[in-house]
Amino acid sequence: AFCLDKNKESGQLEVYWEGDDDELGDGDDVEFLMEHLVRISDLRKKKLEFEDKFVWRNGDGKYDTALPEELDYFGETLQLNGKMTTSEWDAIWQYCNALILALGAAILSLADEVSLDESDYNLVLEMSNFTSDTDNSNHEEL
User: Shortest CA distance to 10 belongs to which of 142, 141, 127, 135?
Assistant: First the structure.
């Protein structure tokens, strides 16, 4: 298990692995984390496609940020047809982006331990939106 913390002085994300140095992640952990990083990153590429399918639009065909006031949320007149509001959609993607960032940071923290090859290293940087292994200041929201 790992934790992320933001260094108050540098603003950098720091990864802490639970346990002592002998319990740091290994190649199997990196493989597991990479699998999920790739899966969620691929999902993120389809965000716009999914938005049309899962986000409710108002009568003008525009995405709406909240349920319409004239409809009773618990009443029978609500016609969202199983779709969600944009605020719900945005919260889901904020979570997905934070998860991608966390997975990427965890993988990069083990790069030296498991001899992560350069192509995988660069793939993690790209998917996690890191510009280098130490520059993660563009993730201020964490």
Answer: 135
CA distance 105 to 107: 5
- In angstroms, what CA-CA distances link 81 with 18, 53, 60, 94, 107? 44, 11, 16, 24, 40
pLDDT, one tens digit per residue, over 22-62 is 566 677 888 899 999 999 999 999 998 898 888 877 655 56
The pTM of the whole model exceeds 0.85: no
CB 140 within 8 A of CB 6: no
Let me know if 102 is exposed, middle or buried by CB neighbors in 10 A (0-12, 13-18, 19+). Answer: buried
The two beta strands, 2-6 and 13-17, are: antiparallel
Task: Please tell me the distance from the alpha carbon of residue 131 to that of residue 135, in angstroms, as a whole number.
Answer: 6
